[in-house]
Amino acid sequence: MRPGQDWDESMAPLCHSCCCGLLGHVLAVVFMVTLAFAIVIGNVVTLAVFTQTRQTCTPQGYLKVSLALADVMVGVLVVPFSVFTEISLMVTSVPPMWFQGGSPLRAEGVWQPCQLIGPVFAGCTFVSISTIFLMTVERSVAVLWPLHKDMVVTRHRALFLVLLSWASSFLLALAPLFVGGGFTLEYNECSRMCNYAPRRDGDGPMANGNVMLLFPAFDFTLLGGTLAVNVLSFTRIRRYTRKRKLLSGAGHGGDGGGGACPHRPSFSDIKAAKTIGILTFAFTASFSPIAVFVLGNVVGHVWCTFSFFAFWMLAANSCCNVVIYSMRDRHFRRGVGLFFHRDRMAPQNEKS
Fold it and tell me: What is the DSSP-derived secondary structure letter of residue 66?
């Protein structure tokens, strides 16, 4: 923002009245509040089910809890902060100090909430990607080497990988702030979130936009590895399914031909692998727009409306996992039923 420039004038080049007017802010707040409730409630139920069943005591349970925790942090911290900022913009004529284009002098010496919210969103995104990759590897071991899965994938190894995933993800999220020091975090008028932005105070070094390429490079590397592992797992599942049909057609029965297929994966392992494949597809679909936006932003393109849909499509993915579990996992659906009917069943047991 140039000295003496009015705040409303600075919004004109990027933000149209349909988006930044009163109606646009109201619709954005309604959407954000609904999304926050969906994320928090869905993932809290997921955590409750996992912590009260035996699934938590397995390597896959550790990974699912890690994924749910990352989603809960998005619903508890990231989305509510955007709601607070949008309401502040509606009720006050002066934008908050963390808003895009805010005066560095007014914000000097004051802690900026975006310094926390921005890395939390980026770090939780990286945790989700790395956790889905680990879940895929864990299921592939169960499908490809079913006799060795308990020796290869242990709870201690899974817990160590979960902690490593969280540490490396948040270090990567902080990398643009420390590598070169040319970036800061501010609330973006287009995406309605805390985003990385080049410094405009003139005191720090020039921002190297190539640092931001670390984000899509890391994400697509893990997503590409996840896709490759899924292809191996599904190839093995397809071979096993075809062999089982041949044995069934020869009159040996679906499971009676165990001598010809002695190392077949269990039905639960196959279904879990398919569920993780769906998780991978959903996350890839929700992440791809923001990756395109980052690449375009590095080369100088400003896509205001597209950035809003890209960032919030990624945030909305945080409430998709519980829906996928509900549709695909019979044990999860049973755990949800027991969780909600536990209070009803307790008095009946006491009377009996």
Answer: H
